[in-house]
Amino acid sequence: MEVEKPLMVVLGGGESGVGAALLAKAKGYDVFLSDKSLLQESYRQILQQQAIPFEEGQHTEERILRASEVVKSPGIPEKAPLIQKLRSQNIPVISEIELAARYTKARLVGITGSNGKTTTTLLTYHLLKTAGLNVGLAGNIGDSFARQVLENSFDYYVLELSSFQLDDMIQTRINVAILLNITPDHLDRYEYQFQNYVESKFRILQNMTPADTFIYYAENPAISETLPVKKPVSRLLPISLIDTPKPGAYLKDGLLVINDGHQTFEVAQADLPLKGKHNAINILAATLAAQSVGIQPDALRRGLLTFQNAAHRLEPAGEIRGVQFINDSKATNVDSVYYALESITTPIVWIAGGLDKGNEYDQLAPLVREKVKALICLGKDNRKLISYFSDRVPTLFETQDVNEAVAKGLALANPGDTVLLSPACASFDLFRNYEDRGNQFKEAVKRIMNDE
């Protein structure tokens, strides 16, 4: 008699969902994938080729509620009625990360924080790969973790972990965890309670052992206040811009000093491609993580010097008549803009705006007064920006056209100045996403360069 297989339902048919479906099928589950939106054609073809049943444009609750377990896309909020029904029937809901981690013996380096995750993840991956380790890149970036576990046999994975992914991780053990910072973000998903968001970020510690390593920025208030309560059992490696922790890592007089308890590595930040205090934290964290898995000083230095950051994060977009254009479209919250303004040493024409996420701009006021000579508001509704900054910047201009924003930025700048796109807002009022916004900005700069 044929034994009935357990049913794994995957909610969401994007990169992580399709990867989860493929892995679940390979591990002996009956699989059903359901997406309320339409699937990309490439993902549709993969599911069809692998004979994995799916639906799109709807969720058939009767079928979904027969699941023995559900893998949920991080984009689906906990308060969604379907998720609430699953919870009420005690059907386990997990993330793709949780599923994939069950089926790999690789060591996991997990990186989270409100800001800096992508840069730190990419740098950590680059350091490990440059040193010759057999390493994969996954999580909130790159290819599906589950699909990589199915198709590859990496010894290490570097995982960028959002709070939404952490929320549905239960048994996953992170071997080297990095917590960069916690500042208010995504509060609509956390009942507008900052502490709920803090708790979510600290889930990265939940299954660590004394053999594991926790790297954290010691001067972030939410981290420093919560850490004593959590009493982590793992080895602690703090990062500081004020003190000189040993073991740990710190910045002093422009020198980055990294000591994981076994060796010390030093490098001048001025020699590296990543600038600014926020990037000092990212570099210190990534280098500590690399040291923790045994990377030696020569390989660390080689990796740091050859790193190229992700697009849309303080990305040089061109120079026109001595004016530098910087694309920081990924800066969708106030904290990210603070880091961008802090890292630029020239006078700034700042392009900001978009879909406001409940921003409070007080922390930017001193930097704006000191560095910003003009603000260009690029958005459908700029009232909040205009109201706050009209008395704080000498010149203010409003537009809904990225080409006009770039042209006006050039007109307002002098040789040696920087035109910075760092929006502090989501992009969905005028653009498909932050990548689209950044790409259109770069194209607008390129058009003027070609006309010069």
TrEMBL record:
SUPFAM superfamilies: MurCD N-terminal domain (SSF51984), MurD-like peptide ligases, catalytic domain (SSF53623), MurD-like peptide ligases, peptide-binding domain (SSF53244). This is UDP-N-acetylmuramoylalanine--D-glutamate ligase. GO terms for molecular function: ATP binding; UDP-N-acetylmuramoylalanine-D-glutamate ligase activity. ATP binds at G113, S114, N115, G116, K117, T118, T119. Belongs to the MurCDEF family. It holds the Pfam family MurD-like_N. It comes from Larkinella knui. It is found in: Cytoplasm.
